[in-house]
Amino acid sequence: MLLVAVLLAGCGPSVKGPEPGRPAALTWDQEIELGRKVGPDFEKHYGGQYADLAVQAYVRSVGERISRSTSHADLPYQFAVLASDTVNSFSLPGGPVYVTRGLLAKVSSEGQLAAVLAHEMGHVNARHAARELVREAGMQALLDVLGVSDGGVAPGAARYAEGRAKAVGALVSHHYTPDQEDEADRLGLDYMVAARYDPGQAMRVLQGFEALNGSKPVEWLSTHRGPANRIEGLQKIIQEKYPGRRGRTGEEEYKREVVERLAAPKP
Question: Where are the domains of the chain?
Fold first, then answer.
C-alpha cells in the first residue's frame, strides 16, 4: 500500500543513487520533491489532516523515534494523521508517512502504532512507492510534476496539474506486491526493534486487522497484502532473529494520548 510531505533536494539523504541491485528510475532528490508536491492533494483525498494537534504530535514523536533507526535516517520524514475514518496507512516517495484516524481507533498500543509506521518507512526506504508510481502513472507524468524539461521546454501549468492528478490517483488506487509487503515487514521489524519496541507488536497489529475483516472488509486490506501469510513470516523472523526479545509496548500511554482523545467530544 502506500503511502506523505517534505523538503527539497539540498536536504536529501546522503545516499543519492540507487541501492545495490535495486535500480530506481528516480533519484532520491526527485523522490523527496515528488512527495512534497503530491502530498497536499493526497491529504485532501482523505479529508485533510486530523484537527487534534496533540494526537498529531504523539504520532509524530513515535515516527521520529523509529526514523532514527532506519537505513536512511537522514531522509526528511514527516508523519501525519489523516481525518478519514477508513482504516489505512500510507507512505509517499521520499519520506511522508500517514495513518488515518480510523486506523488509530483500531490500534491498541504505541507498539502497534510503531509497527505500522515502521512498515511504511520500510516501503520508503525500499523505494517501493516511487517504482510503482513510475509503472502506474508513467515517467513523463512524474517528470511534469517535477518540472523537468522535455527537449528544453519546461512543462506548462496544464501538464503539471495533469501529472499531479495522475500521481495522486495512482497512489490512492495502488496496492503493493506480496514481495514488497514482505520486504517492508522485514525492514519495519528491524527498525522497531532498534527503536526498542516489542517485536511481537508487529504480529498483534496484523492479527487485529485480520479480525476486523468480517462482512465489511477494511480498506487497509485492499491496499496491503492479507495478514495471514505476513503473520507467519514475521513470527519466523522473530524466532530466528529476535528470540526472547522484549521491548516497549506503551499501552497506557496510547490509551491516554490517543484513544481517550479520539473518544472525547469535540467542541
Answer: 9-261
Helix count and strand count (H, E) for the chain: 13, 3
Angstrom distance (rounded) from CA 24 to CA 124: 12
Could you tell me which of 258, 88, 91 has the C-alpha nearest to residue 191? 91
- Per-residue model confidence as pLDDT tens digits over 18-71: 343 343 479 999 999 999 999 999 999 999 999 999 999 999 999 999 999 999
Residue 187 CA to residue 192 CA, distance in Å, equals: 9
CB 167 within 8 A of CB 135: no
> Which residues are registered as beta bridge partners of 90?
98
Work out the burial of residue 64: count CB atoms within 10 Å of its CB; fewer than 13 is exposed, 13-18 middle, 19 or more buried: middle
Q: What is the DSSP letter of 257?
A: I
Q: Is 244 exposed, middle or buried (0-12, 13-18, 19+ CB in 10 A)?
A: exposed
- Grid cell locating 173: 488506487
